[in-house]
Amino acid sequence: MNGLLVTGTDTGVGKTVVAAGLARLLHEAGYRVGVLKPVETGWEGPPGNWPPDARMLAEGARVDNPPEQVAPCVYAEPLAPLVAARRAGRPVDLERIEAAWRWLQDRDWVLVETAGGLSVPLTDTLDYASLAARWKLPVLVVSRPGLGTLNHTFLTVHYARSRGLPVVGVVLCGYPEQPDVAEQTNPAMIEEMCHVPVLGRVPRRPAITSADEAAAAVAEGLRLEAFLARYEELQQRVLHD
């Protein structure tokens, strides 16, 4: 089973768009894809209904899992999981998360999306980097294309490496049709600073509200063959280290 943690440099950078779009590209290439968002916050719907991020992931992978297997823990307030859990008086249920993860082990690919970035806490002792280490997941970083992204992207990549997590690469989401100077020069500078490839530039859209739209945008900005080649290269490197 191939696995990947899709994380971001900030909230709202396009993690769900990239994860759902990549899931669809893998599915269309013939892979059996599983998706998991261990904790989704900012949704107040009734139990058993689909939170929006989990729905887009499931539709992207074309899976018919029940909602609780894609988003095992859901909180109403749009906060970091640990903060939302404390305020709700309901701790993040790691047993539910682990059960959802085990259920996906027969898939060719499993994409796990974070809520926020790598250092966002789920419990007093566990952040997403810890979860990725536990599940032996390499990391794909989703970043903004514009001014300020160099620092955010470098810090995310650096933290991943400090925790022993291989970084597959970076995807810039929301890349404009007419980029300014910062947006033009940032991809090469990210590669120079972080020593990882920029694997995609997902184009900016007025809004992306469905998995079909996410898949179309990701397909325009990311070559699946390049992603798979980089993933295989990284896995071989890890095996020989």
From TrEMBL:
**What does the entry list under GO cellular component?**
cytosol
Q: Which SUPFAM superfamilies does the entry mention?
A: P-loop containing nucleoside triphosphate hydrolases
Q: List, separated by semicolons, the cofactors it needs.
A: Mg(2+)
- What main location does UniProt list? cytoplasm
> Which GO biological process annotations does it have?
biotin biosynthetic process
Q: Which reaction does it catalyse?
A: (7R,8S)-7,8-diammoniononanoate + CO2 + ATP = (4R,5S)-dethiobiotin + ADP + phosphate + 3 H(+); (7R,8S)-8-amino-7-(carboxyamino)nonanoate + ATP = (4R,5S)-dethiobiotin + ADP + phosphate + H(+)
Gene3D superfamilies assigned to the protein according to its UniProt record, in alphabetical order = P-loop containing nucleotide triphosphate hydrolases (3.40.50.300)
Q: Where on this chain does ATP bind? A: G12, V13, G14, K15, T16, V17, D53, E113, T114, A115, G116
Keyword annotations: ATP-binding, Biotin biosynthesis, Cytoplasm, Ligase, Magnesium, Metal-binding, Nucleotide-binding
- Which spans are transmembrane here? none
Please list the residues that bind Mg(2+): T16, D53, E113
Described purpose of this protein according to its UniProt entry: Catalyzes a mechanistically unusual reaction, the ATP-dependent insertion of CO2 between the N7 and N8 nitrogen atoms of 7,8-diaminopelargonic acid (DAPA, also called 7,8-diammoniononanoate) to form a ureido ring.
Question: Mind telling me what this protein is named?
Answer: ATP-dependent dethiobiotin synthetase BioD
